[in-house]
TrEMBL record:
PROSITE patterns: HAMP, HIS_KIN. Residues 242-455 form the Histidine kinase domain. Keywords: Kinase, Membrane, Phosphoprotein, Transferase, Transmembrane, Transmembrane helix, Two-component regulatory system. Pfam families: HAMP, HATPase_c, HisKA. GO terms for cellular component: plasma membrane. It is an enzyme of class 2 (transferase). It catalyses: ATP + protein L-histidine = ADP + protein N-phospho-L-histidine. Its EC number is 2.7.13.3. It is found in: Cell membrane. Residues 181-234 form the HAMP domain. This is histidine kinase. The chain crosses the membrane at residues 12-35, 152-176. One of its GO terms (molecular function) is phosphorelay sensor kinase activity.
Length: 455
C-alpha cells in the first residue's frame, strides 16, 4: 500500500512508531556503550589488581610456577617475563606458551594496557592485557589479561533492550493511532453531515464539538459558510423568480399583440402595432441591460479611475436628464473623488431617476465633505439625494437594494422602473470603496452615498 493512500491515522501511527523506534535504538546504543565503557574500566582495574598481586611476589622473590599464589576469585591468565623476554611463570592455562604480548610500559609509567587479539588465548577472543614492570635484578614484566566485554555486555541485557524497544514502539504507535482516531471522530461526523447536505436541504448544519480546539473552529467556519451559501442560494432563487416574473409581463404583452395581429392581419395598422409593441421591447431591453450591468459589477470588472470633482459630475449628469420635478442643488466644489466617470455618472443618474419616480414635487441634491463614519478614516465625499415623497420604512430600507424589489409594484411598473436601478447603484458605490444607504429624514427618502476622498 502506498503511503499517500493511507489514512491520517495510519500515517501518523507509522511516523510515530518509526520515530520512537529510532529513538529507542539510539537510546539503547548509547546505554550499551556507556555500560560497556564502565564495565571495561572496572575489568581493567581487576586485571591490574591481579598483576599487582603477582608483581608483589616477584618483587620478594617468591615466584612459583605455575601461578598462583593468587586467590581463586582473582584467577586470570597471568605471565611473568624475565629481563631476557622469557616466560618464567604462568597460570596453568598458559603453561609452555610464549608471551601473550610484547609491549611494555613507557617510562615514567610502570603500568600499561592494550587490547590484544589473535594471540595465544584459546578462546579466540580479544583480551585486555595489562603490563606491569617490576624491578627485581632487572626489568621483569608481569602480563595479566581478561577477555574483552562484548558490545551487548550480557545477552540478557540485549534481549531486554530489544524487547523493550519493540513493546514501547508498538504501545506508542497504538496510542497515537487511538488518540488521533478519537480526535478525528468530530471530523468524520462533519464529513458525514456534509455528504447528506444537498442544494435542496441547506438548513442542516454540521455538529460542533464541545472542545474549544481546531476542529471546533473548523466546524463553526463550515456552518458559517453554509449560512452564507444558503443566503446566496436563496437570493439566487428569489432573483430567478423575480426575473422570470419581470420578463414574463412584457413577453406576454408582445405575444398577445402579435397573436391578435396574426388572427386579423388585414385589420392591423403596422405603425400602431409597432407603437404598441415597442414599450414592451424597451422594457425587455432595460431589464437585459440592467442584468448585464449587475453581472459585470459582481464579476469585479476593473475600473478606469480618474480624479474628478463630484459637484461638477453631478451638474453634468443633471443636464442629461429631462427633469419633471423641481431640483434644489447644494453642490460644494472641491470635493474630489477617484473612480470611473461612466459608472459614477450612472450611479447618480439611477438615484435621480428613482427620486423623480417617487418625489411629490421637489428633489434636493447635496454634495459636501463629511466625517464621523467609522468605516472611513477621516473625511469622506458625501452625495445626498432627498425627495419629498412617501419615503421608505425602516424595515424595508435594505429590501429596496435587492434586484426587482418594489415597495409599490403597480406604481413602479407604471413609472417604467425595472427594479434594478438601486441594486446597480449600490454595486457601483461598493466597487469604488464606498457605501450607499438610506438615512433618516423628516420626509421622503434620503439616499446617501459616501466615497473616499481623492488625495
Amino acid at each position: 500500500m502506498r503511503l499517500e493512500n493511507c489514512s491520517i491515522r495510519g500515517r501518523l501511527a507509522l511516523f510515530t512508531g518509526v520515530v520512537v523506534g529510532l529513538l529507542c535504538i539510539l537510546f539503547s546504543t548509547v546505554l550499551l556503550l556507556t555500560i560497556n565503557k564502565a564495565a571495561t574500566r572496572n575489568l581493567t582495574k581487576e586485571v591490574t589488581a591481579v598483576g599487582e598481586l603477582t608483581a608483589y611476589y616477584v618483587d620478594r622473590g617468591k615466584l612459583i610456577n605455575p601461578l598462583p599464589p593468587i586467590p581463586q576469585n582473582l584467577i586470570r591468565p597471568v605471565q611473568v617475563v624475565d629481563p631476557q623476554g622469557k616466560v618464567v611463570a604462568a597460570t596453568r592455562d598458559l603453561q609452555h606458551q610464549p608471551a601473550m604480548a610484547h609491549f611494555t610500559p613507557k617510562p615514567p609509567h610502570r603500568v600499561a594496557s592494550a587490547v590484544v587479539c589473535h594471540s595465544i588465548f584459546t578462546e579466540g577472543r580479544c583480551h585486555i592485557v595489562v603490563a606491569q614492570q617490576v624491578f627485581h635484578n632487572g626489568d621483569w614484566t608481569v602480563y595479566s589479561a581478561a577477555p574483552t566485554i562484548p558490545f551487548y555486555i550480557y545477552p540478557g541485557v540485549m534481549a531486554l533492550l530489544i524487547a523493550g524497544t519493540v513493546i514501547f514502539t508498538i504501545a506508542v504507535a497504538y496510542g497515537a493511532r487511538h488518540t488521533v482516531t478519537r480526535s478525528l471522530k468530530p471530523v468524520d461526523a462533519i464529513r458525514a453531515q456534509l455528504d447528506h447536505i444537498q442544494s435542496t436541504d441547506l438548513g442542516r448544519r454540521v455538529p460542533v464539538p464541545t472542545a474549544k480546539d481546531e476542529i471546533h473552529r473548523l466546524a463553526r467556519s463550515v456552518n458559517q459558510t453554509l449560512d452564507r451559501l444558503e443566503d446566496v442560494l436563496e437570493q439566487q432563487r428569489r432573483f430567478c423568480s423575480d426575473a422570470s416574473h419581470e420578463l414574463r409581463t412584457p413577453i406576454t404583452a408582445i405575444r398577445a399583440q402579435m397573436e391578435d395581429a396574426r388572427l386579423a392581419p388585414d385589420d392591423i395598422d403596422l405603425a400602431k402595432l409597432c407603437d404598441a409593441v415597442l414599450p414592451s421591447v424597451e422594457r425587455l431591453q432595460s431589464i437585459a441591460s440592467g442584468l448585464l450591468k449587475l453581472t459585470r459589477l459582481d464579476a469585479g470588472v476593473p475600473l478606469e479611475r480618474q480624479t474628478m470633482d463630484l459637484a461638477e459630475l453631478v451638474a453634468a449628469e443633471l443636464k442629461n436628464h429631462r427633469l419633471n420635478k423641481k431640483v434644489v442643488r447644494h453642490l460644494a466644489t472641491g470635493v474630489t473623488v477617484s473612480g470611473d466617470r461612466v459608472r459614477l455618472s450612472q450611479l447618480i443618474g439611477n438615484l435621480v431617476q428613482n427620486a423623480q419616480r417617487h418625489a411629490a414635487s421637489t428633489i434636493t441634491i447635496t454634495v459636501r465633505r463629511a466625517d464621523g463614519d467609522p468605516r472611513f478614516p477621516g473625511e469622506t465625499a458625501e452625495l445626498e439625494v432627498l425627495d419629498d415623497g412617501a419615503g421608505v420604512a425602516d424595515g424595508q430600507r435594505e429590501m429596496v437594494f435587492q434586484p426587482f424589489a418594489r415597495l409599490d409594484t403597480a406604481r413602479s411598473r407604471s413609472a417604467g422602473g425595472a427594479g434594478l436601478g438601486l441594486p446597480i447603484a449600490r454595486r457601483i458605490a461598493e466597487s469604488h470603496g464606498g457605501t450607499l444607504t438610506i438615512q433618516d429624514s423628516p420626509h421622503g427618502a434620503r439616499f446617501v452615498i459616501r466615497l473616499p476622498l481623492s488625495p
